[in-house]
Amino acid sequence: MATALITGASAGIGRELARLFAADGHELLLVARRLPELQALCAELSGRHGVQARAVACDLASKGALDELLVELRGLELDYLVNNAGFGTVGEFAELAAEREAAMVELNVTAVLRLTRAVLPGMVARRKGWILNVGSTAGFQPGPYMATYYASKAFVNSFSEALSYELRASGVSVTVSCPGPTSTEFGALSGVDQSRLFKLGAASAASVASEAYRAMLRRQPMVVHGLINWFLVQSLRLSPRAVVRAIIALLNRPPELKAKP
User: Residues near 104 by Cβ (< 8 Å), separated by ≥ 6?
Assistant: First the structure.
């Protein structure tokens, strides 16, 4: 029976992906910071689908906790890896807490890199595996007032596409899902749910997860969720960078910050 490791599985897109994997009969290793939520999800999935689901409480933004998880993964055959965990912040970079920004890079970038590197050799040796990384449409342009988050997702998008090409004849596929604004805890926790960007509309976590899951099974290198997001991403190719920066700044700027000349 195939086994899937899903990070950030306690809520949002990660939780919906866990439900999709369980419905297809996969065993699950669910990772997130909050153990009670993970245990409740494991009980739900085991009861509904009869699959084995194990909860692992781990703060992937902590180097020590990530090291411990990597030790636990040694010798474990994983068929699927879903790098979904991540968070963002909103505001002027010079005013944001340095420790929080560094933790974001650890979670959004370093954890993705290290978990992928840990499981990939085994997948390649077995000539079988699927890796799904949750990137973002944010990764296609700079993001004033969310500078670190946008940069971190640019890494995830680019890293995933590059690996997809490298592994094209290996039996292992890498897919990056690039949703736009999505109704999850992310918006409220980061504060971006009050921005103009989110007020334009947000997709459901279930719809994003479903599209990402199907793209992964098709071994598709990238999927941009929603037709509007796809058109917006394509328009970036033709738009002057100065215009792109100004538009994204307008969409991301917290209501309490006044526009600068």
Answer: 61, 86, 87, 88, 89, 148, 149, 152
pLDDT in tens, 110-119: 999 999 999 9
Check residues 233 and 96 and name the one with the higher pLDDT: 96
Q: What's the full length of the chain, in residues? A: 261
What are the tens digits of pLDDT across the range 92-109? Answer: 999 999 999 999 999 999
Residue from 80, 145, 150, 153 carrying the catalytic annotation = 153
CB 144 within 8 A of CB 94: no
149 included as an active-site residue: yes
Place of tokens 């899902």: 177
Helices 147-166 and 111-126 pack at an angle, to 10 degrees, of 10
pTM of the predicted model as reported, rounded to 2 decimal places: 0.92
The one catalytic residue among 80, 145, 149, 150 = 149
